[in-house]
Design a protein that fits this description.
The protein has about 325 residues and is α/β, with parallel strands linked by helices. It contains 13 helices and 10 strands. The strands form 2 sheets. The protein has a 6-stranded mixed β-sheet, with helices on both faces.
Length: about 325
């Protein structure tokens, strides 16, 4: 059942799934590793843990799913080169944005915070997209300047219904893999991914499934938005730079309030320890990709004993030198 204030409908998600999987961007159906509890002895053995590895997705994160749907019908003035696209991103959306424009032989601009990893800045530039870095607090004003004075078209990196619908395809794959989850735990930055997954699961009829968003303690915009009852803007700082936008989106907040059980916080130390634990069992994940599992490993998700629990590992965009600095 849907209502007029739904950000996305089940039909939107199903259509987006078709668009995403038929796109020329090589979007993959990613593995769902089942029955993973024994790899983490600290867990209650009655938990049936599954890991959805968006870390193995094209461009190294889930972002390409949303971008494939967001850019499926570009304005003609963009296709012709008369106008350019602009976005702002700490890395993973920017990488998917640049990858897509490169495939379409188009140029664009990505504004990145000064805290963005240098490896991601270099990678986005290598794909032909220009990069400008500035303090996080100035990103929005810079975007507005380019839109107003230089006629760029802004594509939001998380607060966009087309992105949310595209990210819903992750949940559809989980359900198609014969897993009827009791609990799904998702990393949350701007909230696009958890919004899409939560909407897809709830609208597919799993009304009793609990979906949790997980944020870093130092970048708790959705958590504070839940506390205040409206999207907030705040200073952020975390090793998980991909989970650190300075504000919660209006659409993602609306979707999360409707479908997400709660927002859980994890420390940077818990994130990095989880990253190390994944590495120990042969899985590479960036800090931003580890928050959901970190919450589970640190017993922050309530009532999971005897439950089917899915954690989404969202990205693997981390260099060897970064890994060595994070994992001691």
């Amino acid at each position: 059942m849907t209502s007029d204030d739904d950000v996305v409908t089940l039909e939107d998600i199903e259509k987006a799934r078709e668009v995403v999987m038929k796109s020329p961007l090589n979007v993959r159906k990613t593995p769902l590793l089942k029955n993973m509890t024994s790899y983490f002895p600290e867990l209650d053995p009655s938990i049936n843990l599954h890991l959805k590895l968006e870390s193995l997705q094209t461009t190294g994160s889930f972002k390409i799913r949303g971008v494939a749907n967001q850019m499926a019908n570009l304005p003609q003035e963009v296709k012709s080169g008369k106008r350019k696209l602009i976005t702002m991103s700490a890395g993973n959306y920017g990488k998917a944005f640049a990858y897509t424009l490169d495939k379409l032989n188009l140029s664009g601009l990505c504004l990145m915070p000064l805290t963005a990893p240098s490896s991601r800045v270099a990678l986005i530039k290598s794909l032909g997209v220009s990069v400008e870095q500035c303090p996080t607090s100035e990103l929005t004003s810079e975007v507005n300047r380019y839109v107003q004075k230089e006629n760029f078209i802004y594509y939001h990196s998380f607060d966009d219904a087309r992105l949310i619908a595209g990210y819903g395809s992750v949940a559809m794959e989980i359900l198609e893999d014969d897993v009827r989850p009791d609990v799904v735990v998702v990393c949350c930055g701007g909230g696009g991914l958890v919004s899409g997954i939560a909407a897809a699961i709830k609208l597919s009829g799993l009304r009793d499934c609990r979906i949790y968003a997980v944020e870093p303690e130092g970048s708790r915009t959705m958590y504070e938005s839940f506390q205040k009852g409206e999207p907030v803007t705040m200073a952020v700082n975390s090793v998980a730079t991909g989970l650190s936008p300075p504000y919660a989106g209006k659409l993602t907040y609306q979707c999360c309030r409707r479908y997400v059980e709660d927002v859980i916080l994890v420390s940077d130390n818990e994130i990095l320890k989880c990253m190390s634990r994944l590495f120990d069992i042969g899985l590479v994940a960036e800090p931003s990709g580890c928050a959901a599992l970190a919450a589970i490993l640190n017993n922050k998700i309530p009532d999971v004993a005897g439950k089917r629990v899915v954690a989404v590992v969202t990205g693997s965009n981390v260099t060897l030198s970064e890994m060595s600095s994070y994992i001691q």
